[in-house]
Specification:
The complex is a heterodimer of chains A (290) and B (291). Chain A is mainly alpha-helical and 290 residues long. Chain A is 77% helix and 0% strand. Chain A folds into two domains: 3-48; 55-289, MetI-like (MetI-like fold, Orthogonal Bundle), CATH 1.10.3720.10. In chain A, helix 1 crosses helix 11 and helix 7 (171-179) packs antiparallel against helix 8.
Chain lengths: 290, 291
């Protein structure tokens, strides 16, 4: 090959490399633009509908009178009960797998099973909740049945993120504790858990923020789409924001779809608050270790 | 003291065991209702019938239209998410500097964290009307709009898992390629991508499983018409959307309509379970390669 030919191929390859880079950047831009379009579309549809009356109002046959108070309180209530049910069990399971289980066959099977459960479609959990909680355990279509279903759904996520947090605790802390004569549980409870706590909280909040946007499992267990009151006990029937959004978006009238957009803004604000809390905790944690 | 430690360990073990109980619960609940369903409908009719009209006066229980609808929407989603996700993964792993990553990664995380009901709204009231301007024949409910939106939804999953796989490829392979005079693109596409192949395949299979199980986007924007078609312009119904449709009505327990959602759910569970198993197996094999 002559020198000019080599230079020509080299130049062509450089050009292709540049083209490839531009293409990849364009693809990334499409992703960014989609997110922008999504937010802009929903804001322009529903932004003007947001008001104090919309936040504190109850559902109504007339779109302009309808509000989301029942759904907002329903969402918050269900998530709190979910947290009470799922967090202690999830953290305990993670402690077993990370600190006790080691390489035992049982621990490995449980681990594999959790990885698989994390990828099971959420609507399958809805069918489990319908068969197990609503029918077999006769909880009916109550807050408790909904929260139990969501608790099973977020359990694998909480276990996985708690294990990450426990793994980040330096072994020297455990060894120091053992050297002072502490038992295994004393080491876990007094040394490992306090250090891992911010990490556990961050992971848990992120898991719960995923659960708060879940719609399909709650529809499947039969959470109502029209509830005219805020839930007052764990046995109340309930609805949640995503279900209210689904109900409004499925109606043909444009006024209800405006309500759906406004309710989406409320839901996104709720998610943003939870994520901000998680990030705040993570930053605090990182400062402490560094 | 010894006894207390022992009790604690057992309590923790029981909590961990609950996850096995969840899997068992899913299988038992689905199996019980599915067997009751199959006592009334022959399994051959269920699996190979081409008409799905369980709520009609003369019900037919052929699940193929629902399976076809699920596969159609998932294929469209993968056609969007696969090339875009891989390209952005290559860019983020091989090209991007720290500033771009700091900006792009959170945006992708946000895309992954948006509730699916919001994507459903977006598909029905933004993407479909937009597409209708170019495709006047597109029905108001269709497979195309939700498929594209679902692709955008799973793009971050494909991108971040593929990027992880590419990052795991040892530096030496890249340096060897550069030493031979290859450009970045040649190195990325002919060295890093093949080396990370099983990891990337694992990511893609997981994405397919996510698309197959996705519910709200299709329940809102794809329609409720079980139809054996490959035409993305028409209203269709997926397995997940059918379960939602029946759940919204008040179907009494013990009827055959009630049992259909468990039979469809069983099929969905088995399908995604198989995909997840293959994905996990591929990922573990990939990890061993570079351990």
């Amino acid at each position: 090959m002559t020198e000019t030919a080599t230079n020509a191929t080299s130049a062509r390859r450089q050009l292709m490399d540049l083209g490839f880079q531009v293409l990849a950047l364009l693809v990334l831009c499409v992703a960014l633009v989609s997110l922008g379009a999504l937010i802009a579309d929903i804001w322009s549809d529903g932004g003007s509908r947001l008001s104090w009356n919309f936040l504190t109002g109850f559902p109504s046959r007339r779109a302009e009178n309808a509000g989301v108070w029942h759904a907002l309180t329903g969402s918050v209530f269900v998530i709190l009960v979910t947290a009470v049910l799922a967090v202690p069990v999830g953290v305990a399971a993670a402690i077993y797998l990370e600190e006790y289980g080691g390489r035992s066959v049982a621990a490995r099977i449980i681990e594999m099973n959790i990885t698989n459960l994390a990828a099971v479609p959420s609507i399958i959990y809805g069918l489990l909740g319908l068969g197990l909680f609503v029918r077999m355990l006769a909880m009916g279509r109550s807050v408790l049945a909904g929260a139990s279903t969501l608790a099973l759904l977020v359990l694998p996520v909480i276990i996985l993120s708690t294990r990450e947090a426990l793994r980040a605790v330096p072994p020297s802390i455990r060894e120091g504790s053992y050297a002072l004569g502490a038992t295994k549980w004393q080491t876990v409870w007094y040394q490992v858990l306090p250090v891992a706590l911010p990490g556990i909280l961050t992971g848990t909040i992120l898991a719960l923020s995923r659960a708060i946007g879940e719609t399909a499992p709650l529809i499947t267990i039969g959470a109502l789409t029209f509830v005219a009151f805020a839930p007052d006990s764990i046995w109340s029937p309930f609805t949640v924001l995503p279900i209210q959004i689904f109900n409004w978006v499925s109606r043909p009238q444009a006024e209800f779809q405006v309500n759906a957009a406004a309710a989406i803004l409320v839901l996104l604000a709720l998610l943003l608050t939870m994520n901000a809390a998680a990030i705040w905790l993570r930053d605090r944690y990182q400062k402490k270790l560094g | 003291m010894k006894r207390f430690e022992f009790l604690i360990e057992w309590a923790l073990f029981l909590c961990a065991l609950l996850s096995i109980g969840t899997t068992a619960g899913i299988i038992i609940v689905l199996a019980v209702e599915t067997f009751a369903f199959l006592r009334e409908v022959p399994i051959t009719e269920f699996l190979f019938g081409t008409e799905w009209t369980p709520l009609f006066a003369t019900p037919r229980f052929g699940v193929l239209p629902l399976v076809a609808g699920t596969m159609l929407v998932s294929s469209i989603a993968m056609a969007v998410a696969l090339p875009m996700g891989l390209l952005s993964a290559v860019y983020l792993s091989e090209y991007a500097d720290a500033r771009v990553r700091r900006f792009v990664k959170p945006v992708l995380e946000i895309l992954a964290g948006v509730p699916t009901v919001v994507y459903g709204y977006f598909a029905l009231l933004f993407v479909t009307p937009l597409l209708q301007q170019f495709l006047p024949n597109l029905a108001g409910f269709n497979a195309l709009g939700p498929g594209i939106v679902m692709g955008i939804m799973i793009l971050p999953l494909v991108s971040s898992l593929s990027e992880d796989a590419m990052q795991a490829v040892p530096r030496g392979l890249r340096e060897g390629s550069y030493a031979l005079g290859a450009t970045k693109m040649q190195t990325s596409l002919r060295v890093v991508l093949p080396a990370a192949f099983s990891g990337i395949t694992a990511a893609c299979i997981l994405a397919v499983s996510r698309a197959v199980g996705e519910t709200m986007i299709v329940a809102i924007a794809a329609g409720q018409q079980p139809r054996l078609t490959a035409n993305p312009m028409l209203p269709i119904e997926t397995m997940t959307a059918y379960i939602v449709q029946v759940s919204l009505g008040d179907t009494p327990q013990g009827t055959i309509e009630y049992r259909t959602i468990f039979a469809v759910g069983m099929l969905l569970f088995l399908g995604t379970f198989l995909l997840n198993l293959v994905s996990t197996w591929l990922r573990d094999r990939f990890r061993e390669e570079y351990a």
